[in-house]
Amino acid sequence: SAEPISLTAQELSAHDLDTEAAYDALSSFGLELLQSTEQAGESTLLSPLSVILALSMAANGAEGETLAQFQETMGGISLESLNAACQSLLSDYRQLGGSTRANIANSLWLDPEGQISEEFTGRCMGIYGAEVFQGELSSPAVVNDVNHWVSKQTEGLIPKLVQQPFPQD
Fold first, then answer.
1. pTM for this one?
2. Count of CB atoms within 10 A of residue 137's CB?
3. How far is CA 157 from CA 1, 130, 149, in A?
4. What average pLDDT is seen over the chain?
């Protein structure tokens, strides 16, 4: 079982300058995402932060050309800078005060057949605060499991996210 891997204060401070550049790149990515959604002409609720966090977590499991494509998509920033920026953002959101409330929940759903690196799982847990669940993703039971978790995390605002089990491939 993987242990959470977070960036230490020293590691975060080593990326201070990179983090500012990462914030700029992530802001540009979010703006472009919203603009492209607006151009589709449909009314859509979209959280650029959620997309950024999901892509950033996935980037931690990538290597080679796939990792390079993730980095290009996220503005050309290194994985280390991306992780530092995301950990800092999540920390900032958790410390919001007053009447502002932001609930951010991440999770990994792993199939027992999959070969997932403990480092990947540890980074997702430590940096992104992801909960890890294991079960057969192509099983009908996963639909209820995922929807229950999402509904609980969103206080019922998103009662159903998944309609059917995931394909085996």
1. 0.84
2. 20
3. 32, 20, 12
4. 87
- For 2-31, how does the pLDDT look when each residue is reduced to its tens digit (9 = 90+)? 787 887 777 777 666 677 788 888 899 999
Looking at the predicted structure, is the pLDDT value of residue 105 above 90?
yes
Separation of alpha carbons 26 and 82, rounded Å: 9
Cβ neighbors of 2 (< 8 A, separation 6 or more) are 118, 119, 121, 122, 125, 132
In the numeric block, the tokens 């703006």 are attached to 31
Place of tokens 């990792």: 67
* Residue 147, Cβ density class (10 Å: 0-12 exposed, 13-18 middle, ≥19 buried): middle
Q: What are the backbone angles phi and psi of residue 109, rounded to the nearest 5°?
A: -115, 110
Q: Can you give the chain as a three-state secondary structure string?
A: CCCCCCCCHHHHHHCHHHHHHHHHHHHHHHHHHHHHHHHCCCCCCCCHHHHHHHHHHHHCCCCHHHHHHHHHHCCCCCHHHHHHHHHHHHHHHHCCCCCCCCCCCCEEEECCCCCCCHHHHHHHHHHHCCEEEECCCCCCHHHHHHHHHHHHHCCCCCCCCCCCCCCCC
Tokens of 145: 């499991």
Pair 143, 166: CB distance under 8 Å: no
What six digits make up the tokens of 99?
């009447």
